[in-house]
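Two entries, shown back to back:
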Amino acid sequence: MRSTPARRTLPRRSFVAGTAALFGTPLAAACGSDGSDRAGGGGGTLDVWVYEDPSTVVQEEAVKRFNKSSDIKAKLTRVPGDGYENKLRTSMGTGNAPDIFFNWGGGSIQDFVRKDMVLDLTPYLREDSRFKDAFIPSILEAGTVDRKYYGVPMRSVQPVLLFYNKDVFREAGAEPPRSWNDMLDLVDTFKKRDVIPYALGGAEPWTDQMWLEYLLDRYGGHEIFYKVQNGDMSAWGHPAVLKAAQAVEDLVRRGAFGKKYKSVQYTNDAAPTLLAKGRAAMHLMGSWEYANQKAQQPDFAKDGLGWVRFPDLPGGRGDPANVVGNPTNYWSVNAKVADGEQGGKREAAAVEFVKLAAEKEYSRALIDNGDVPPTAHARSLLSEHDNPAYARFQYDLVDKAPYFTVSWNQALPAKQGTPMLTAIEKLFNGQIGPEKFVATLKGL
């Protein structure tokens, strides 16, 4: 899934594969420091890498505030989004690696953690209760690896929601779904009116993935994917995985996504436009859909866009209050920041920098940017959002969630995430059945 609500292009592993040569040392020299002050270099500057998009302004201001009071200065390196993951992957373990870096938590840094490249922040969070308690618990937990904290939440919450067109529902005399049976009944309701029940950008399998994420969570609980995320591929053999795949097969056969979903894209706004123009009734998508609609279809975003949570499923074991998506993005600290004569001071300075994300001033800056912060104190600030009702809905959904499952392809290493997406695409396209789908995932 996408990592930031404001971007129009996707920072996906499948999109950036093979671009490492484009984002090597020349780019580092152009937009970062000269390398002498980087991790392990023992210098007095902390090189901070951030994914470059409209939210970068918030991190720019944080660096300025930090540098006013810190002897060890932070220097922000803005890395173009489409090359961020490859650039980070090729730099870690070298002299060009960042001291502090933006990431997606969980599986996105798992390989680095296993190679002892990331600083364990657990002691700092345990020693400073105000630091730890500043964040929504489910968001903070989503940044863990092997139950240890390696990330500090630093951008907006990004749950997956079920969006709907108010006018289309009004014309059909229908109500937004509250149960899975409602979801199925609405397929027939809108097909009779020649309206696609659920818009789907099936040409990009990360959009398909969202359906399976919720179906598996609702049928079997979050523990199943948690095991997968931590390396137990046998967990894909849980009966709930087969049940989720069968539900997808049923939706496709019912015509829930229309006839042309395989060629519809999200990144060119085709799927969002189907919803905005009333050619589709609903759209399961990350919370950035609001910002996207506001930019492309402002009148629809203001008056015609509605949203609800994904419903519970009959007989499901999962908590219906759970959410899936990208909990947020995280700051992590390179373990080499502690090396050298000034290691202790640099580590302390790096921790103080990431603590900025826990402050109200930082949360207010996110809200001013149109985001919903992952902090516990953000509720009192949401009236300042450009759409307070939408901001409060998102915030309450996440705040009350017992568990927030990270987008599967962001939670898993690329060697597993890429073939998983291929299998998901084949399932939605009818190229493999549910049983073959399960067997493929178990073999990852």
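entry 2 starts here
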Amino acid sequence: MINFAKQWFVVVLLMSLLFIGCKKSEENKETILKGTTTILVDETLQPLMEDQISVFQSRYKAEIVLESRSEKEVMLAFLKDTSRIALLSRKLNNEEVQYFEQLKIKPKTTKIGSDAIAFISNKNNNDTLIALKDVILFMQGKSQKGIKGLVFDNPNSSTMRYMSELAGIKEMPKEGVFSFKTNKDVVKFVSENDGMIGVVGLNWLYQPSPDMADFIKNINVLSVKGEGSQEFVAPTQNNLAEGKYPLARDLYIINCQGYSGLGMGFASFVAGDIGQRIILKAGLLPIRIPGRKVEFITKSKKENE
């Protein structure tokens, strides 16, 4: 009888442990609105994504780790399965799409808004206008008046890739083009050196970190004349909306998790009303302008008397 009682106790204990284990496993299971995941972010868009993640985590039981890297580094990590969620300023190319399809994963691409590449100069430079054609010629190794040098964030960045494609070059000239590591480095260098033209993501200028405030005060954001145009256009939210600024680029959240996880929930959040308001507040262009509710309050006749 004693042995039976002991056996029964062991069975109950094992069942209890199994139930607790299953319950904890269920609680920790990632869904579209809870769990833990990592998002790879193009460094030029880091400030925007920090805001989005902060608000998302405050509303849902989710923990998102942000890994900010150059575009090329993001793609290497993305393909190696360091994370299957990425924010980029381009869509996947055919080769990348085929890679995921071989893994039986269909990439889900969500357009969330538009950003831009901006040119900046030192505040001491009185000229705040620049022709895109002159920048392209300089990148092709042809010296141009008014450009002492071009400064990029990173040789593997999206800004470097974008401008190289425009210039039709595979390698930068050995003289006159410099690169650091981040957009912050570019802003700092240009603020301290006359004659240099910095090439940065617009997001960093609209949402500078506190330690960048003094550097931002010492730079000019240049208006750009596109090829075939006679108008110099500043990289403002309004000009992005009207399609006037020549260096605009679309932003995408790409989800290759292959299941209904936080990637799907986060992309929907950023493309939804709250996420679009965050993009609007950041000075960039959302894919849809969030509506405003205007409430008219009229006084009664008695109140007017």
